[in-house]
Design brief:
- This protein has 283 residues and is of the alpha/beta class.
- It folds into two domains: 64 residues, no CATH class; 201 residues, Dna Topoisomerase Vi A Subunit, Chain: A, domain 2.
- 26% of the residues lie in helices and 18% in strands.
- The protein is globular and about 65 Å long.
Length: 283
């Protein structure tokens, strides 16, 4: 008999709820896979810490064997040395995103790059550093851009597997927060929060509307319950990318926010558009 967990990206789909009653949007409840069969109500919850064993033990896997199962605990949260971050905040003449930003906002570009801790890595890629509400650097995302400010996804795939000194793994305790989360400590507690998908969009929207808090999830389905907790009791407007995936992701995001006591509203710029554009394209 083989026993393993369902992969994180599949957990919510096969088990929308943990047996303890909480939603599984963040994938903290890991259902068991026994001989390839999903046990949607049996597994281990990394949130409540409980293990839910199958009611019936098969003949080739006796009850005593369950005591031998070792559930690896979640790693202790780690932070990145700010001096390492500071070392990347340069080389903007080789950073296509920084150069594009300069062409659009020449008088504000230096402030924006510093404010959001946007750096440069080898091959001219752009680094978006994720800093939490306590001013701790959690993680980073590396992206490649064309001179016109659009993503170069093929280049990103090409370099994604390269060994990098700036690679921080989840298993080591380096976990994402919301991009731009540090702003929550700079604004009034009742300041409206606008939640978008991409880091680039958050930067542009902040430039145009600095009276609001602009955060990014990093993707349509990226928000976890743990990340959402920092927005508890806040008024949050979700602005999805304009296509089916973005709108479906916004509905899931709204549910996650509602679960942590947020007042969340989806603001779809134009429900008739299916091009994948976002608010940054309009601005």
């Amino acid at each position: 008999m083989t026993l393993e967990f369902v992969k994180p990206v599949q957990r919510y789909r096969v088990a929308p709820l943990c047996p303890c009653g909480r939603g599984n949007h963040d994938g903290k409840f890991a259902p068991f896979l026994i001989n390839g069969q999903v046990q949607d109500k049996k597994g281990h919850c990394f949130s409540c810490g409980n293990t839910f064993h199958p009611d019936k033990i098969t003949s080739d896997f006796c009850e005593a064997d369950w005591s031998k199962i070792h559930i690896k605990p979640q790693p202790e949260l780690k932070f990145i040395d700010p001096t390492e971050v500071a070392g990347t905040l340069k080389g903007y003449n080789q950073n296509n995103f920084a150069l594009w930003l300069k062409s659009k906002f020449p008088e504000q570009v230096n402030k924006l790059l510093n404010y959001f801790s946007i750096g440069t890595c080898r091959q001219g890629s752009t680094l978006f550093w994720y800093k939490d509400a306590s001013d701790n650097y959690r993680k980073l995302k590396r992206m490649f851009y064309k001179p016109d400010g659009h993503r170069v996804k093929l280049e990103e795939d090409k370099y994604k597997g390269l060994c990098s000194p700036l690679h921080y793994k989840n298993a080591e305790g380096y976990l994402y927060c919301l991009f731009g989360e540090f702003q929550l400590s700079l604004y009034q507690k009742d300041a409206p929060v606008f939640l978008v998908e991409s880091e680039k969009t958050a930067v542009i929207c902040y430039t145009m509307f600095p009276q609001y808090v602009w955060l990014a999830t990093g993707g349509a389905n990226k928000l976890t319950r743990e990340q959402a907790k920092v927005l508890k009791h806040k008024l949050v407007y979700i602005i999805p990318d304009m296509h089916q995936q973005g709108r479906a992701g916004a509905l899931k995001t709204k549910q996650v926010l509602t679960d942590v006591s947020c007042k969340a509203t989806i603001y779809d710029i134009d429900p008739t558009i299916e091009t994948g554009e976002d608010i940054a394209d309009y601005l």
